[in-house]
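User: Hello, can you help with two protein structures?

Assistant: Certainly.
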Amino acid sequence: MKQSPRTELAVPSAKALVLSMRAMGYQLHTALSDLIDNSIFAKAKNIQVTWGWGKGHPWVMISDDGNGMTEAELKVAMQPGGRSPDETRDVEDLGRFSLGLKTASWSQCKLMSVMTKTPAGEVSARQWDLEIVEERDSWDLIIDVDAATESKLSKELEKVEKGTVVLWQNLDRIIGESGADLEGLEDTFNEKFTGTVLPHLEMTFHRFLSGKDAISMKVGNAQCHAWDPFLTAHSSTEERTTETFGRDSVTVTPYIMPHSSYLTMAELRKAQGPWGWSAQQGFYVYRNKRMIIAGGYLGLTDDNGKHFEAKDQYRLCRIKVDLPNNVDHEWDLDVKKAQASPPLRLRRDFERLVRSTREKSSQVYRRRTIARRIPGENVHADIWHRRKVGDKIVYKVNRESPAISHLRESANLSKTHLNALLHLIERTVPYRGITVDNNELTDATVDLPDNVEKPPNALVELAIEITRKEIEEGKQPKNAVDYVCQIVFQLNSPQLRIALEKEILNV
């Protein structure tokens, strides 16, 4: 029989460990997402994030109408590592490490209080005060919550028959140490919720915010609305074949987003996501429908061993990956549920999917499909022609395109002068500068602000004139508008179409 080695207790310092746990790398929006995971698993139908400045003593509250916890369950929930990550989890469980409530809260505040109520009406409360933990160097969980905090929690919990309320105070990591000297930062504090938290929650939990069993989530007075990264309801989104891998039922569905010419300005802005078209391309990884990764290529490499990079021609490539919660270890899921990596046995298949989806994205992005949608019209109407001269590629303005022809006639410009002008433009296109800008600044020359993309009034007036001329020659008004927007002026400009529809169709 093997002799047991001699041992001694090596109890970690509460002070040192809690300071380390505070440095897990959470941001406000990711910390709140971890707490909302608990609310969803508790079957909450309504989740509310509220906050207040408190005259320089700000606070944040997360409340729900979920199933609540008994006192014993609350104690385990408040205990760091209350459950082993190796335990078999409920298939709908969004947690893994039994650290989220604590580490997420401690990353933002020093005083975290929880009050919960079961369907049977049992009410329990506990509180972590990290100043006490650090002072005593002991894991002293507070049972008797202070009166002011208890009153605030009770008032919120009275609104529901069952549920849980989490309150963050002493928000030293969000805004700094509390005090009157912070009065000037109130707007900055509010902006964190309206400008960052709201869109992040709409993205992360979009599959819970839509459908017949949708939950309601609010950030302050703002209702969260699902942000679908795949535009699945849009008729021009291409959903490719879903593949299922391995015994763990990991499913992957590539999507090709619609070309911008098929989207209205509002759809275009919404579809680009919080970080813009280029940054939002790539994989969207979900664990039990909860998004954990939004964009990027998971460290995968191409045939030359180089990491796949976000490039503008692949901006329409988005790939959905659905994971069950029994593959966390294999996918190297971290505590924050913000990083994951596919196992070695799946990498080749995933790289194959990236290559094929990016190739399709490039094809859709580059082609002028919209000019082919009007039967019988000139399919050689592109304003620019791409020509190969030896081993070089040059771009020439198509002198015969309807746009150039109409503009020349309107300006009463001779072909000789027009050729001279266009030659000057063609020879001075800053190719190198455009290439460098798009490499250094993501999407530097696309998705420009409205005041830059808006067509000049003279062009709009000319478009109206051409549209009326096409109607006089026999086109139906709507077809004439389509022809001018899609064939004559290939600007993909919603503003131009709106102007024509208003003037010609009275829309």
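That covers the first. Now for the second protein you mentioned:
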Amino acid sequence: MKSAKAMRVRIHCGSHEIGGSCVELEAQDHRLVLDIGRPLNAALDEEVPLPAVEGLASGGDPNLLGVVISHGHPDHYGLMDQVSQDVPVYIGEAAARILSEAAFFSRTGLDLKPSGFLIDQ
């Protein structure tokens, strides 16, 4: 019987509040961040620090494979502007397009440079 590889899941934000989702998955010394959201109760001008995920702000960590943005709500992508541009970002193509177009009209929009797009299977 083949032994299962351990996976560690760390919920940085969103477990005791609605919104501000950030979950870090780690397996075999590689990590992936699911969402990097802004808490819903944070004011638009309030500074919210990034969760303590190694390499997220500074980039250059080869064990951090990237950030996956699940969908285009600020409580799932709202802290992306603080993430190093060296960190790969993955999001659905339509969500990326909507966020980019929204950036023209609203401070909550975001012009991402995705490393790749999520697809439905």
